[in-house]
Write a structure and sequence with these properties.
Blueprint: E1 31-39, H1 44-63, E2 67-76, H2 87-97, E3 103-106, H3 109-112, H4 116-128, E4 132-135, E5 140-141, H5 147-178, E6 192-194, E7 200-202, H6 204-218, H7 223-232, H8 246-254, E8 262-264, E9 267-269, E10 277-279, E11 287-289, H9 299-317
Parallel strand pairs: 1-2, 1-3, 3-4
Antiparallel strand pairs: 4-5, 6-7, 8-11, 9-10
Helix pairs in contact: 4-5, 7-8
């Protein structure tokens, strides 16, 4: 083939499309940016931190010329060791996957999640949908080549910190139990108020309700019939509700605190990551304190009720 018969190559340039800026001076397509804030307790000091985070990131995003504010997702009094109970976190992920967010910024990796698996799973899910995360304290961008490695390291450190705090807390609680320290949820405990030094102090009006429940049970009333009668009389439950149920009545009848004693560590958390409370059936030590506080039900009546509970349970079993 001669030189004359050869065809010359022709290169055609296809210009890039202008996604962000337009030639005619139209407004930029701004990056939609959301922020996530979380504090793990409802304490006053933490509440200040929570409010400060919300205000800071709201103002910070709105000041950026090429960003548009896509929302503030914030949670108060929620642990970071699991994402299952973090409603705002899940809502943020759903909005991002739906294409409503381009970038998520947060204070630190530990604010995002203290569980390594949860943290990486969420970040990879977001990345698959083109959503980037920025952690201000560590200066980590997830689209950066080293981003995932750094997040893995920082999440692991945050998770170990949570483990250490959890173990120290459990150790402190068990030492308190060994020393006879009784913890009671007074706001949801019928019959007693918190005394000046944190001790159980009899609430006379509520104590009458407790005594009535014990008498009705020994008179042959079932849990559900007692509950119906209490509801009919307009007596509030331990949680301040107006409708009683049989389970609440049974719990009151079985609670040793009404005889002046206290069984400690009835429930325990097996895993610091999910913090699910389980009934203690011998997995960890329990501590029984005799004569811890003033009784509402005398020992004889309390014992009769326990025997009647067993009798009815055996009868239903047959």
């Amino acid at each position: 083939m001669t030189e004359k018969t050869k065809k010359e190559k022709k290169v055609i340039v296809i210009p890039a499309r202008e996604d962000r800026n337009s030639e005619n001076g139209q407004e930029k397509n701004k990056r939609r940016v959301a922020a996530y804030a979380r504090v793990s307790t409802n304490k006053e000091s933490q509440q200040t931190s929570y409010e400060a985070q919300v205000q800071y990131y709201t103002d910070y995003i709105k000041k950026q010329a090429d960003w548009s504010f896509a929302g503030m997702y914030a949670e108060e009094g929620v642990t970071g060791t699991s994402t299952r109970k973090r409603v705002e976190f899940q809502r943020m992920i759903d909005d991002a996957v739906a294409g409503n967010i381009d970038l998520i910024i947060t204070k630190s990796v530990s604010r995002f999640a203290r569980n390594t698996v949860d943290s990486l799973t969420a970040i990879r899910q977001l990345k698959e949908h083109g959503v980037e995360c920025y952690f201000e304290k560590e200066n980590i961008w997830t689209f950066d080549t080293k981003g995932e490695l750094l997040i893995t390291i920082m999440s692991s450190l945050a998770q170990e910190e949570s483990r250490s705090i959890s173990e120290n807390t459990r150790w402190g609680m068990r030492k308190a139990f060994q020393n006879g320290k009784v913890f009671v949820p007074f706001r949801h405990f019928l019959g007693y108020d918190r005394g000046a030094n944190g001790e159980l102090q009899v609430n006379l009006e509520q104590a009458e309700t407790v005594q009535m429940i014990y008498r009705m049970f020994l008179d042959g009333y079932s849990f559900y019939r007692i509950a119906a009668e209490l509801t009919k009389r307009g007596i509030s439950t331990p949680y301040g509700l107006q409708i009683w149920n049989g389970r609440t009545v049974k719990n009151i009848l079985q609670n040793e605190k009404y005889r002046g004693d206290a069984l400690l560590q009835k429930r325990y958390s097996r895993d610091f990551l999910d913090r699910e409370m389980r009934k203690n059936e011998g997995a960890v030590p329990q501590y029984y304190i005799v004569g811890n506080h003033e009784a509402i039900i005398d020992t004889e009546m309390f014992q009769r009720v326990q025997e009647e509970l067993k009798r009815r349970e055996s009868r239903h079993g047959k």
